[in-house]
Amino acid sequence: MTLIGWLQIALAVGLVLATVAPLGAYMARVYAGEVRFLAPVENGFYALAGIDPRREQSWAGYTMAMLAFNAAGFALLYGILRLQDVLPLNPAGMPAVPPDLAFNTAVSFTTNTNWQAYGGEATLSHFSQMAGLTVQNFVSAATGMAIAIAFARAFARSGATTIGNFWADMTRSTLYVLLPLALVMALAMVLLGLPQNLSGPVEATTLEGGKQAIAQGPVASQLAIKMLGTNGGGFFNANSAHPYENPTAWTNLLELWAILAVAAALTATFGRIVGDRAQGRALLAAMLVMLGAGIVACYGAEAAGNPILAKLGLTEAANWEGKETRFGIATSSLWAVFTTAASNGSVNAMHDSFTPLGGLVPMFNIQLGEIVIGGVGAGLYGMLLYAILAVFVAGLMVGRTPEYLGKKIGGREVKLTMLALLISPMTILVFTALACVWPGAAESLANQGPHGFGEYLYAYSSGAGNNGSAFAGLSANTPFFNITIGLAMLFGRFLMIVPMLAVAGSLVAKPKVEPGAGTFPTTGPIWVGLLVGVILILGGLTFFPALALGPLVEHFAMQAGDLF
Amino acid sequence: MDVRAHISLFDPAVLRGAAGSAVAKLDPRSLVRNPVIFVTAAVAALTTILFVRDLAGGGDAGFTGQIAAWLWFTVLFANFAEAVAEGRGKAQADTLRRTRADAVARRIGAGNAVETVPALELREGDVVLVEAGDVIPADGDVIEGVASVDESAITGESAPVIRESGGDRSAVTGGTRVLSDWIKVRVTAAPGGGFLDRMIALVEGAERQKTPNEIALAILLAAMTIIFLVATVTIEGFALHAGATVPVAILSALLVTLIPTTIGGLLSAIGIAGMDRLVQFNVLAKSGRAVEAAGDVDTLLLDKTGTITLGNRMAAEIVPASGIAERELAEAALLASLADETPEGRSIVALIHERHGVTADAAGGSFVPFTAQSRMSGIDIGTRQIRKGAVDAIKAWAGGALAPAIAEAVDRIARGGGTPLAVADDRRILGVIHLKDVIKDGIKERFVELRRMGIRTVMITGDNKLTAAAIAAEAGVDDFLAQATPEAKLELIRAEQAKGKLVAMCGDGTNDAPALAQADVGVAMNTGTQAAREAGNMVDLDSDPTKLIEVVAIGKQLLMTRGALTTFSIANDVAKYFAIIPAIFIATYPQLGALNVMGLATPESAILSAVIFNALIIVALIPLALKGLAYRPAGAAAVLRRNLLIYGLGGLVVPFIGIKLIDMAVAAIGLA
Questions:
Q1: Do residues B411 and B392 touch, judged by C-beta distance below 8 A?
Q2: Which residues of B touch A410 (CB under 8 A)?
Q3: Which residue has the higher pLDDT, A496 or A307?
Q4: Of B156, B162, B209, which is closest to residue B181 (Cα–Cα)?
Q5: Domain-wise residue ranges, chain A
Q6: pLDDT at residue B174, rounded to an integer
Q7: Chain B (60-99) residues lying within 8 Å, Cβ to Cβ, of chain A
Q8: According to the model, what pLDDT value does residue B1 have?
Q9: A323 Cα to chain B: minimum distance (Å)
């Protein structure tokens, strides 16, 4: 670890924190319907769809609207991928995407996962990238944000029946938050050297005289929303390690910011919506504690590198494998932590090549449920579910029925919260175990032993956590993995959202009790510590056996001089 | 009536009975009510089958057998905890029954034969004979006879009332006493309105229904059981990838140590013990729900008289009219009060003796008692008439206006929350006596404590606003309701509840019944009317309204005990993982020995020690579950910090030490 490395990390984290308050306040105004600079466009959409944005929905209505919208989005994307050979903007002449891969990819992008079982530039047409993937990059992110806001309203209102209008929340997320941010960022990226065109690949002659096809296309526009919407699906297979997606230290810094900016700011939006900004800050503080610990652990492990190489007398002990020299150890580690903290899933280095502990951090981030800042919206509602749980586990200790933000937590809330929180870990563990015993699944592994096990575990964690990054050693484009990871993504997204919105429906109807001296405190260091503790014990203990058999055993083996 | 039975935590009779019922509770129909323990029992059964297989097939039967035995012990210990709590409840119930058995009734059976039976055996429709000096054994209607009945126990009115058959003076209340003559009463409700019976069933655990918090907690524990079941079962798949298999007995051990058996095993014991503590305190609750609600109370409605102030007003000073000597007023006040046996009257006599050193002789005088019409009392000595009473009554009697100085004094006393009594001698107003409410000792400090706990206190009084405000300020309550009518009380409760607050109150009169029913915690006084006792969800057998505060504390203690043991139970899992995971995989991956931070002797002893610890911790925590957490009034933040330190951090650390110690013992004895 170097001073310059820590300074780079501090700069990126500082940049994220700097935008929390202003962006959070702005979003609070957006969802209150106070930002209207695109009113004609917005109202046009509502008129076209026959929607009255002021007519609010119950939790069930909100959920149905969300599910219908996402089902339609899935069908559209699946159709585009299957028909891309006959659709326009296909200069490279890509064939139709096979069914299992099209299913996997359509699920992946509608669930905001952006797991890529394919190589972007080698599989998809420009039309598929722009009209298919990029559209989903916007609306899947907007869906997550809308749901988080609806959940926040459940805490803000007292004895109400509605939690907002899905269509209005979704449209406003897109029009007033994601589109403007993405537009500015895309232009900045073009300025910093990213390509933005509709051309086919160019052919280059390499130094050895070989021929190389260099793909290009609308990279900057897709990149901006890929980062801002915690999507992570790269235009190129190499994602943000590719020089066209992330050429310099400046683009790297800006992209790092974009991974966490919106999700972090949503905590401030939450604080404003519930009328107590300290509540939002407490959630962010808990996220930052875990983020900080992850950064220290990951950067520490990568900087320490592989003791076997050190014994061989190599001067540079740090682990450079799979990393771009233009980013270095610090910001590659930082990216790995950010992208898994935020369910983004883009990469600027290959996590498969990290040291065992360095690779454990991203995996653990995902397994905790993507709540360390988390995906846009998804991070906030995931964290809120844990907050409800933490309040319930420890809240009885103050001698009262547990309450969070003035809402009493009863049997129904506990049941639905546990249901929402159980889905992701169950999916990960069951599918990983299934892959372990599935005949032929092991052929997809680049490595055997605990590292190969880690590749399975990472893949399903990434799917169920809607992250999308991968231990690249797994060749996941097989029917078995396309289908099981596709299901993991669906379960991790929607089977969590539905009970979560039911919690919102249950909470919004409850009276909001004013806080008093006897109220369980949900701000301040004790609460932050308790929340982190509950997340680590309940989230972490679930995965302890799996992690022990994967990265931990690999780590101890490496210390002893064995590699897999 | 005192129903308290003081039962030691280690009462041998209770423990013996509990040991028996712990085994009886192995009945699957009984086990299934507790998902965590049911899973434990199922796993224990599975391990027992494996043990038999190992015995036959030559596996490591010694090890499997020990695991199976300790898993069964885990189930038995959990059953034992519940049985001990129930046993103590039963002991309480027996005492309750004895109390009931003490009362007797003379029942008129067939052929008009009178038989003496315990009041307990009366049923609706029975006819009883009650004669002078008897206590009416149950609520009922007079069907024959006329009697004067002392109903002071329920009305506070000492004048006897006439009860006769027919008309609207036929209803009599259990617990009241016939003073003269005799009546025949047809019983309309079994003694105690079946209330005592319900209570007995409740403390015995027979009718125990889960309370809302208990249900929510049970769901959490069940969900955690499911997730750990998945986490354990999938290990087999992961192991296959590593080319190893994990014996099912070991996975069973891991599962049982991970699922929250500690709190799962103690949960119902905690609930029963909470009810029990209330009974020890001489308060009967109709449901566990009421006890739990007591912990949640945000607003306490407290009657001024008897709770905040001593029941009676005391004379504090006398204020002579201008031109009247203090001594003259003192003498007149004394003469007017000498024969007045009310506490107020006696306090006037005491004040004048002590402060003014005046004595007087009322020989030959005739006492004029207080009546609701005259609103004054006094004495006639010859033709001299001395009166004291309400200021406007005396003013009307004396004729004419008050002197400005007197009017001013009256005003000052009223503003300060006192009651002015005017004194007149032969229709000449001499001055006023200041009667003052006396705030109970220590009550002010109690309100400070309550405020720190986040509970708002509201004083209920029939006084006017001015008086109420002054007393409220002196006592330090947060708010007050003056000139309170039953409707105003009900209104106040509804308003608080609309804000999401839980309200507790106590009351005794029939007109309190709607408010008692509306309140989340309504404590009826045992001396109160049947209607009040039916409406409330608790009855205080001591009829001490101050106890409302302790009832809240008991409710809080119940919830705290549950929360603390839940936190402790979950925190324990960390150490168990560190004991078992390296032990399971040490053969496949020797490197995982690095996770054996406790340095446990062998893989077998590590697993066995974790299982033994998991079983013994239930037994170790039974006293805490039954006694409840030490409770001190403090703000939520302070309570959380303290309990989190003890049960959260303690829950992390204790099992590391405990498992290590057990491992040393296991290794020393050579069990594994």
A1: no
A2: 212, 216
A3: A496
A4: B162
A5: 34-203+213-245
A6: 73
A7: none
A8: 43
A9: 28
